Amino acid sequence: MGERMRVLAIGHISYDINIPITNMPVENEKYKVTNNVNCGGGSVANAACLLGKWGIETYMAGVIGNDNYGKNIIQEFKMANVKTDLIETNYENDTSLSFILINQNTGNKTIYSLIKDNLFLKKHDFQYAPDIIVVDGYDFNAAIAAFNKYPNAIKIMNANYFNEATIKLSKYTNYVICSKNFAENLAKIKFDINNQTTYAKIYQYLKDYYKGDIIITLGENGVLYSLNNQIKLLPSYKTKVLDTTGAKDIFLGAFAYAISTSKTKEDAIKLANIAAGLSVEIMGGRLSIPDLIKVTSIFNPSNNQVSANQPILNTNINQMQQNTVQSSQNQVINNEQNNQTKN
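User: That's the sequence. What structure does it adopt?
Assistant: Structure tokens below.
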């Protein structure tokens, strides 16, 4: 295994208040809850905690408020061996909060985020030279500053929310890890589990749009990626689902870990897929970071469990492009024939 790298994580930092419920609330009703699980949050921040716990030298850059939530977050980072030198405290605003309703019947979540508009880094010096930079698009200017200062660093983008900053920043990264929502909105096509052509079309659109490697996480429906000019679908790692909060964050962190330890892209995706699958068994995004030993034991090809994680969709990109061209040509011919018939 190659030498491990240094990681710089730049992004939004929040504090999550997780509330398990049995039924989704309706208007004009009052509900009593007897349990809640609280922990730090934010996609890149959660990924940084995984990297620190898994032994990677990791620096987190982001902004917290001057409150107890911010203090708790700093303590969590330190317990996860994440360097906090680059975290700034905003004395005018509170730490961002996320109120997460977790459906105990399905494990799915509904999130209300309380985010101030100006919780952005003021300093962009980033004195610790990274080998890998992980960003989420929240602090666009800070991310661009890091990219410019360290042009040779491997850049990994968590394209979760569909907005202008995320769309633009993704163009400068080596790996774009997209959410299903982001991919559908950019391609203007919906995934149809009964029609895998939609998978290939969406993937091809993003591949044409960005120069970096495209990885699309589809939740319970797996991970879409390409290798050797083939579009592949990797099934999700099946476990008992308690809480899906942070599963994509865990995927992001585990993928960055695998890249930092010189694994191939496909092996990095498989390892991250397993880590994300294990995370949904525990409530609370940051609290659900799985143990590295457990993840690697499942990843080991000699373990039969990994056989369920082999790609099931193989679509040739060149063939698909040819089919698209042929389909367009056929449409033109049909239109001409229809016009001749009318005449």
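Residues 6 and 130 are 5 Å apart (CA to CA).
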